[in-house]
Input
Amino acid sequence: MIQRRGPVWWETALKRGSRVVVLTLGDTVAGYANLGRNRARGLPYEGEIYELYLRPEYQGLGFGRRLFGDARKELAASGFEGLAVWALAGNEPALGFYRAMGGTGVARSSETFGGRMLEKLAFGWNG
Output
């Protein structure tokens, strides 16, 4: 994912008001979170983590928890109350992670990815 996001993607995201939290280990970008205002107006949360990605070799070591916590702090410091995160329904590791982080399932939807309709689930956190 990190290599797939080139400079144009990052520049566009930042111009649209997204914030980015980057986890670096030495000179290596180990992961990132892209966040900002909640896009799902029907949910009672002001903030949203659009993407949270951690390179596979850094997963399971507590870095995801740290990245999530820092993203949550960034949203709160920016004045957003509560947050939502969407995950694909078939992505069991992501679903388990967000449940372990205290997220509550709050919505279901579907979206087309690569020509396929996939179900996604929203998790929410207050305050």
